[in-house]
Each structure stands twice: as structure tokens, then as C-alpha cells.
Design goal:
The chain has 299 residues and is mainly beta. 7% of the residues lie in helices and 57% in strands. The chain is built from 2 helices and 17 strands. The chain has helices at residues 2-14, 89-95; strands at residues 17-18, 21-22, 35-40, 44-50, 59-66, 72-79, 105-114, 126-142, 145-160, 164-169, 172-177, 183-205, 211-234, 237-243, 251-261, 264-270, 285-293. The chain has an 8-stranded antiparallel β-barrel. The chain has a 4-stranded antiparallel sheet with strand order 3-4-5-6, covered by helices on one side. A two-stranded antiparallel ribbon has the order 1-2. A hairpin with a 2-residue loop joins strand 10 and strand 11 (172-177).
């Protein structure tokens, strides 16, 4: 009933007859408006419509003004949701609408996949941790397929678990054995990176409240900090060796893939580029497997 009354009212607004001048009829249909407001005074009537079934940001305002000379003037103002202004709403209904699952918080175990002979780096002894506070999603690309990108932060460390340690020799980082009789604690490389993920996600509903999703793409890393630290004891005395000038690669690209259900997932991150510049250090490439939690950050 409300829809028929609103349609009749807006149709009446679209028909204007002034003296001998007649305008074409105008029919405006708004499906399931959220709010309708009508203000009538002696010389004007204003109708405001907010929200529709497909767009909560929709606004329509139509005013009929009647002057002293009997002439009437129609004024109309319309607003739309500009989050994705180039997306056709009919197409969105055909392809569906999904929200990408973002590694809002992630933690994983790392290892070195390419390293010098004799070096030991046991999987699980090295840890990666990070979070992504910003996500931007594209319009739907196809049914159940969408792209996303954003900004995150990542801390990674790679520990040696054998009898070799990292030693700074001039400008170069080299491997050397611990002093004889040492009580070995660890020798590790740590990095901090700004991460820009560029991902595609496919999603499939498993029921009313569950869905499975697969995402993959690249992670662009801007590594702004790297350090090396070694700790051991010798004859009961503690020894610490530390240096933060180890010539990390400032810009790298990792390959990333994840699968999950709802807001939990497992991810794999492979680094095909070297961690440090090879003119100052051996070739080192990493692999991480871990858990991610989608915390719902998006724009």
C-alpha cells in the first residue's frame, strides 16, 4: 500500500500544467524506500526519499514551488552511493556480491628454502607475524570473484639451528662456526616490511552462514629494516653480537595463497627473491605457512 501511495504522489509531482503550457508526464519509482518525508507549505511541497532496496545511500529530493504569478517550478536533487560509482547495479545482482577475506592478523612458521651448504634452518624455529589494517575491494569481476588490495605490516625472522652463526665481516654477512665449547642459543636475521597485497578471491557459499574461499596473488614488500643477532655462552659468560646494517633488498615480491572457511584460513607465502643483497650476503629465500584471521578491516 505504501508503495502505491508513494508512486501516486511522485507521479503527481511529475505532471505540471501552467496556463497554456503542458509538460510531459514523469513517473519515478523507488522500490522499498527506507524513509519518506513530505513537507507542505503555502507555496511549496517537498518530498524526500532516502534509501532503496539496492542502495542504502540513495537520496531523492523533489520540490514543487508555486509563485505569486501562478507559475510552478519543479526542482529535483538525486544522490547515489559513490563507493563504486562505475559499477552497474543490475550487473552486481547477476554476479552476486562477496566480501574478500583479508589477513587482518596472521602468524606463521618460516624456513629458508635456498641457503648456503651446511646451514641449518629447521621449519618452525622461525616465525612470521603481521597484520593488515587497510583493505580496498574492487567491484565484482565475475560470479563469486573479486579483487582486493591494501596495506599491511610484517615482521619475519630466520633462525639458524645448527653449529653455524652469522658474522659481520666488514660490509659482508658471512657464516662461521661458534667458538669451541659454546653453549649455543641462536643466530637469526630479522626484517620489517610494509606490505601491499594485490589479491584475487573466489568464494562459494556452504550454507546460510558459511562460505569457503580461495585467494591468491602477490605481496609487494617494502623492507625498511633488517638486523642480525647472535647469542651464546662461553665459559659461563654471555655473548651477544648485533648489527642492523646488513643490506636487505628494499623491494621484493612474494607469491601468496590462502584457503579458508568464514573468517579463518591457512596461508602460504613464498619469497622467490633474495632476502639480502647478494653482493653482501649469501642467497637466501624463504617460505612461510601459517594461520590468518579476518578482522573485518575494509574501505
Amino acid at each position: 500500500m505504501k508503495k502505491r501511495n508513494l508512486l501516486a504522489l511522485l507521479t503527481l509531482f511529475g505532471v505540471t500544467t501552467v496556463a497554456a503550457h503542458t509538460q510531459n508526464d514523469t513517473t519515478i519509482v523507488v522500490d522499498h524506500p527506507t524513509r519518506v518525508r513530505i513537507v507542505e507549505t503555502a507555496d511549496q511541497m517537498k518530498v524526500s526519499v532516502e534509501g532503496t532496496s539496492g542502495n542504502s545511500q540513495f537520496k531523492l529530493e523533489r520540490t514543487r514551488e508555486i509563485g505569486k504569478d501562478g507559475l510552478s517550478v519543479n526542482r529535483e536533487r538525486k544522490e547515489w552511493d559513490f563507493n563504486v560509482p562505475f559499477l552497474n547495479k543490475d550487473r552486481e545482482k547477476r554476479v552476486g556480491n562477496i566480501s574478500c577475506h583479508w589477513p587482518g592478523f596472521f602468524i606463521g612458521f618460516s624456513t629458508l628454502t635456498q641457503k648456503p651448504a651446511g646451514i641449518q634452518s629447521t621449519f618452525g624455529s622461525s616465525v612470521e607475524i603481521g597484520f593488515s589494517p587497510i583493505q580496498v575491494q574492487s567491484p565484482m569481476l565475475a560470479r563469486n570473484l573479486r579483487a582486493s588490495w591494501g596495506l599491511g605490516f610484517s615482521w619475519r625472522n630466520y633462525r639458524l639451528t645448527g653449529h653455524q652463526r652469522w658474522v659481520k665481516n666488514g660490509s659482508s654477512l658471512e657464516l662461521a662456526p661458534y667458538p669451541e665449547g659454546s653453549d649455543i642459543q641462536f643466530s637469526r636475521i630479522k626484517t620489517f616490511s610494509l606490505v601491499v597485497p594485490m589479491l584475487l578471491e573466489w568464494q562459494k557459499s556452504l550454507g546460510r552462514h558459511s562460505n569457503i574461499w580461495i585467494t591468491g596473488g602477490g605481496l609487494v614488500n617494502f623492507t625498511t629494516y633488517a638486523s642480525v643477532k647472535t647469542r651464546y655462552k662461553l665459559d659461563g659468560e654471555k655473548h651477544k653480537e648485533f648489527d642492523k646494517s646488513i643490506h636487505q633488498e628494499p623491494l621484493t615480491l612474494d607469491l601468496y595463497g590462502a584457503v579458508g572457511i568464514n573468517n579463518l584460513g591457512l596461508y602460504v607465502r613464498y619469497s622467490p627473491f633474495n632476502l639480502l643483497k647478494t653482493e653482501y650476503a649469501p642467497e637466501l629465500k624463504g617460505l612461510t605457512v601459517g594461520l590468518l584471521i579476518d578482522l573485518g578491516f575494509d574501505l
